[in-house]
Amino acid sequence: MSKTVSGSTYNTLWSEAHEELSCLLDEELPEEPLRPERDRVVFFQRLATFYVRYVQIFRQLEEAYDQSVHPQKRRAIRQVLDSVIGRVLELKNEMVEKEFSEYHYMDDIIQDLKLTPEDLEIPVPRYFIWERNKVLQDRERMFAAIFNQMDVTEKAGKSSRAIKIVQVAERARQGRLRAKFMREIHRDSERQRRAEEQEAVSTDQAAVCIQKVWRGFMQRKITKRLREEEMIFLGMAMDPNLSYPSQTELDTVNIEANRRTRQGEHEDDYQKSIGSVIYQLREVEGPEMKETMKDQIRQWFIECRDATGSFPDYPEEEDGGSALIFVWKNRNEIMNFSQRHELELIKEEKRKEIEVEIRKQVTDVNIHTCSVFKGDYSYLGTTLRQSDIEPMPSLSDVRQVVALYAVLPLGSQAVHEKAPLVKTMLLVGPSGVGKKMLVHAICQETGANLFDLSPLNVAGKYPGKSGLQMMLHVVFKVARLMQPSVIWIGEAEKMFYKKVPKEEKELDPKRLKKDLPKILKSIKGEDCVLIVGTTSDPHSADLKSLCKFYNKIILIPRPDYASRYVMWKELIKKNGGEVTSDLDLSSLAKISDGYTQGHMVQVVRSILTERRIQQFPKRPLTASEFVSPLARIDPVFQEEEEALKNWYAKTPLGKKRIKAALGKDGDEESSKTGSKSGKKKGKK
Q: Per the database record, which ranges form the AAA+ ATPase domain (predicted)?
C-alpha cells in the first residue's frame, strides 16, 4: 500500500506542476497580445513573478522525476523538466538585463504568493550525479588502475642513510618515553608533598565537603534541565530528540533509495520490451500494414489515372511534425501498482516508426512493381522478416559451420584433400561469445596442435626481417610435420590495421602482413593446416586486405533465448549446482538477454562457491541470485551487434547476398528501357 500511496503522491505532484505550467503558458502567450509595458519596475515585477512560479514548478518536477519509477513517465517528466530549467534561465537572463543586477530581491512576491525563502532555493537535480554514477565509478576504477600501474616507488636510499634515519627515530622514541616517565615521577612526588603539608581533617568535615560538592553538582544539573525545558516550551530551542532523524525519516530515505534502484530495474525492463515490441509489431502487424498501404497506393494510382488519364509520379517524402500530447493526464493507472512500463504506450510510439519504415519499404516495392512488372505481380504473402530482416544465426548454426569448415577437414586427411580447401577462417563477434573457445574446441575435437601467432604474442620475438622469416618457416614446418595443426591469430584486426595506433607502434602488429600471405600460398590440399583468426573489432582493419586473407568469415552473434536457456542449465550443473523447481531458468534466460557465454561462466563461478553449494539442501538456488552479478557486467548492446552486422554486409559474401536479394529487381528494371518514369523512380 505504501508503494501505491508513494506513486500516487508523485503523480499528483506532476499533475499539479502541469496545471500550473499550463496556466503560466496561457499568461505568457495570451490569445490577444498584451500592450507593451513601459514601466520598467512593473515589467520586472512581472518577470520576477514568472520566475518564482517557474522555480516552484522546477522543484515539483525535480522531486517527481527523482522518485518516479515508471520509465516512460520519467521520460515525459524529464523532457518537461529540462524545458522548465531552460525557461528559468531565460527569465533570469531577462531579469538581469532589465534590472542591471545579478541579485534580485523579491520579498513582496514571496509574500503575495504565500511562500517562504526556502521555496526560492534552486535545487540541484539529483539525476546529475545519480544517472552518471556508473560513469563516475568507471572513471574512479580507471584512475585506480592507472595509479596501480604507475611506478611511484622511489629509489631506496643508501644503507648508511637508512640506518641513520632508523637511529634518529628510535632515539626520539626513547627520549619521549623517558620524558613521560620522569614527568609522572615528578607529578607523584608533588602530590605526595602537598598531602604531607595539609592538616588532617575529621570524618565529619570530609563528609560535609563531599556532600557540598555532590549537591552542587546535582542542583546545577537540575537547573540546566529546567532551563532547557523552559526554552523548548517557549519555542526558543528545539527538542534534542528532534535533532536525530526519526524512524519515519529513516524509512523515507530507504524508500527513496529503493525507488531509485527500482528506476534502474524498470528502465532495463523497458529497454528490453522495446525490442520485443518492435519485433512483434513487425512480425504481427507489419504484413497487414504492408497490404493496407499497397491497397491504398494502388487505389490512389487508379483514381489518378481515371481522373487524369495517366499514372502520377510518386510524391516526395515529407516529414510531418507531431504535437506534444500529454498522454498521462487522464490515464488510469489504478492497476499499475508496481509502476512498470506500459506495453501499449510502447506499441503506440513504435507503431508510428514501423509504419514509416514499412511505408518506405512498400513504396520501394511498388516502384519496382509499377515500373517493371505489368499486371498482378506483387509481394503479397511474404512476411516482413523474410523480405527485410536477416535473422542472426543461433549458436547451433555456428557450431555446425565450424564443424564443417574446420573440424571435419582437419580430422580426416581424405576429406581435407577432396573437399574444397579452406586455408583460413575468421571468427567475428563481440567479446565473450566463445571465439577462443571454438579455436580450442577445434583442436580438442581433431587432436590438432595449436600455434599462437597473435600480434601481442610475437611482439619482440625473432626481431628483424630474417628473424621473422625464420619464425614463420619453423612454425609452418612443424605444423606440417605434426598435422593437423591450427594456427591461431588472436585480435586478427591488428595485422590489417588501417592505421596503427601510436601506443601499438612499438609492438609492430602488422609485421606478419606481408610474409604470412606468401607462406599461405604454399599450403596444399595434403597439408592439414588451418589458420583461424578471431576479432571483436573488425572495423579497425582494412576490409579489403582482411577479406583477401580470410576466405571464410563467420559472424558469431549473442546467444538467443533458447541457447541461453540451455547454457544456464549446463553451466550450473557443470559447476556443482542443482537445477530445482525454485530456479526459474526461463526468467533467467530472459533477463540475461545481451549477455554472452563468457559473462554467464563468470557469473556462475562467482555464485556457486563451495560454501553456497553446501547450503543447497536448506537454501536452493534461485534466479534472483544471478541478477546482481549480471548487473555488474556490461552486456553486448544492440548497437554493437548491428555495427557488426553492417560490417559483415560489406564483406564479399555480404555484398553478394545483398546483390542476390536485389538481383531480380535490378535485372528486370535494367531490361525495361522504355519507361522514363520508371527510371526516375528507380533512382529515387
A: 421-560
Q: pLDDT tens across 274-316, in order? A: 777 777 777 777 777 777 776 766 676 677 667 776 655 655 5
Torsion of CA 577, 580, 582, 587, to 10 degrees: 80
d(CA 445, CA 414): 17
Which ranges constitute the DSSP H helices of 330-463?
343-371, 384-387, 395-402, 408-411, 413-418, 435-446, 455-458
Alpha helices in 447-497 (DSSP H): 455-458, 464-481
Residue pair 456/491 in contact by the 8 Å Cβ criterion? yes
* 544 vs 650: CA distance, rounded Å: 10
- Of the candidates 546, 530, 590, which has an alpha carbon nearest to the alpha carbon of residue 565? 590
Alpha carbons 35 and 43: distance in angstroms, whole number: 11
φ, ψ (nearest 5 deg) of residue 89: -65, -35
109 is written with which cell numbers?
Answer: 512576491
Using alpha carbons, list the distances in angstroms from residue 581 to 26, 584, 606, 630.
60, 7, 22, 21
Amino acid at 683: K
Grid cell digits, residue 403: 564443424
Q: Which residues of 85-117 are buried (b: 16+ CB within 10 A; e: fewer)?
A: bebbeebbeebeebbeeeebebeebbeeeebee
**DSSP, residue by residue, 500-549:** --GGGTTT-TTTTTTHHHHHHTT--TT--EEEEEEES-GGGB-HHHHHHH
Quote the CA–CA distance of 492 and 532 in Å, as a whole number.
Answer: 9
Residue with cell 601467432: 453
Residue type, 581: S
Phi and psi at residue 606, to the nearest 5°: -75, -25
Question: Per residue in 83-116, pLDDT tens?
Answer: 888 888 888 878 777 777 676 777 778 888 888 8
From 462, 571, 484, select the one nearest 529 (Cα to Cα): 484
Name all domains of the chain by residue range, CATH numbers in brackets. 2-130 (no CATH), 247-387 (no CATH), 395-555 (3.40.50.300), 561-639 (1.10.8.60)
**Single pTM value for the model:** 0.43
CA distance 350 to 73: 16
Compute and round to an integer the Cα radius of gyration of the chain: 39
